[in-house]
Amino acid sequence: MRVTGEHLTVAVRGRRLLSGVDLVAEPGSTVGLLGPNGSGKSTLLRTLAGLRDPTGGQVRLDGADRRTLPRRTVARRVAVVTQQTPADLDLTVRDVLLLARIPHRSRLAPVTTADVEGADRAAERAGLPGYGDRAWSSLSGGERQRVDLARAFLQDPDVLLLDEPTNHLDVRHQLDLLEQLASSPVTVVVALHGLDLAAQYCDRIVLLARGEIVAAGTPAEVLTPERIAAVFEVRAEVTIGADGRPDIRIRRPS
Ligand SMILES: Nc1ncnc2c1ncn2[C@@H]1O[C@H](COP(=O)(O)OP(=O)(O)OP(=O)(O)O)[C@@H](O)[C@H]1O
């Protein structure tokens, strides 16, 4: 499914959080949103996800205005993982995973054994075997994040919108997740802070600063030392590898 943001503007009390942002995520591609703190990455993701209405512009899914599509269709086809999962949910890991199947079940249909088995298998795939009965609130930050991501995949969506999904993950789980995203047929838009990981795994990068797009294109086109210095105010050495992707080394300030 193609995700398009057309000239998206978001303003709150006269302050522009996004200004005329255009973005296209082609079916099956992985698009990375990069930018400094407060540059508008979460606002853009939440707007694409329909969690926030744009003040101007529109979001299209395969060309159709998102607002004209039935809610249930969108809930089935678009999975969202934001940074704002409440910590005090009185739910088990299995309960949280079962939420993924709600848009796929007919109304009032009970949870089936197959649903429960599917949820437990998803926990196992997330590296959390036997965690089904564990209280959600007892999980570590990284474990919660892995369950959240497992829930998104269990939804079997066409589009995944992820806000900093690696921020609690150890390095191996970061790589596992990005491998999974890059190799899946799902269209992914993902906000990331790691320039090196984004460069290695994303098909395209959209670089934001102060609510506007500074650059968009392949990682090699966008992540040049000059642009990294201008936007992030750090010095970086960039070499292009045999695969055409930039290898980014952030230097200690001298
Ligand atoms: N509801 C709101 N009211 C006022 N300002 C807001 C609101 N939501 C976000 N902002 C502001 O909009 C700007 C963009 O925020 P956003 O969370 O989109 O940035 P971000 O790029 O995701 O940042 P980070 O890297 O820190 O997560 C910030 O300056 C933030 O303070």
From TrEMBL:
SUPFAM superfamilies per record: P-loop containing nucleoside triphosphate hydrolases
Pfam families with a match to the protein in the record: ABC_tran (PF00005)
CDD domains (UniProt xref): ABC_Iron-Siderophores_B12_Hemin
GO molecular function, one term: ATP binding
Statement: the UniProt record of this protein carries the keyword Kinase: no
Stored InterPro entries: AAA+_ATPase, ABC_transporter-like_ATP-bd, ABC_transporter-like_CS, P-loop_NTPase
Positions of the ABC transporter domain: 3-235
Keywords per UniProt: ATP-binding, Nucleotide-binding
Superkingdom of origin organism: Bacteria
Protein name in the entry: ABC transporter ATP-binding protein
